[in-house]
Write a structure and sequence with these properties.
This is Type IV pilus assembly PilZ. This protein is mostly beta strands. 7% of the residues lie in helices and 39% in strands. The chain has a single domain, classed as predicted glycosyltransferase like domains (Thrombin, subunit H). Strands 2-3-4-7-6-5 form a 6-stranded antiparallel beta barrel. The longest helix has 8 residues. The relative contact order is 0.24. The N terminus is likely disordered.
């Protein structure tokens, strides 16, 4: 079991109240893969997501730089498009990433955008 996924240095906003369709993004990894993800939770410093296709889980390596190319725009997570991140942990098809740089939002603003 990966205990890193349970760390909480920054408040996480769980997104399970938002339909999974509206939490999907298209991502590119430096290890050469393009894939679709569904965001599980987010903070201003990073996010946890699952890969939509199990066949794509080998496209991401630890310390990979990721580029979030586009998200389903619904005024909630569209701000993530063009965001960069680095993979910091993996547990099967679930990954944790740190945004580089952090989101330019304070935690209350991020929470209000996503509630």
């Amino acid at each position: 079991m990966n205990t890193l996924s349970d760390r909480r240095k920054h408040a996480r906003i769980e997104l399970n109240s938002i339909n999974s369709f509206f939490r999907q993004c298209d991502v590119a990894a430096t290890s050469g893969g393009d894939f679709d993800i569904t965001i599980l939770n987010i903070s201003k410093k990073g996010m946890k997501f699952k890969i939509n296709s199990k066949n794509d889980s080998d496209k991401i390596k630890l310390d990979d730089e990721l580029f979030i190319r586009g998200c389903i725009f619904n005024d909630r997570i569209g701000f993530l498009s063009s965001q960069k991140a680095v993979t910091v942990w993996q547990d099967n098809t679930v990954f944790g990433v740190e945004f580089t740089p952090s989101l330019d939002l304070d935690e209350p603003s991020l929470f209000n955008m996503l509630k």
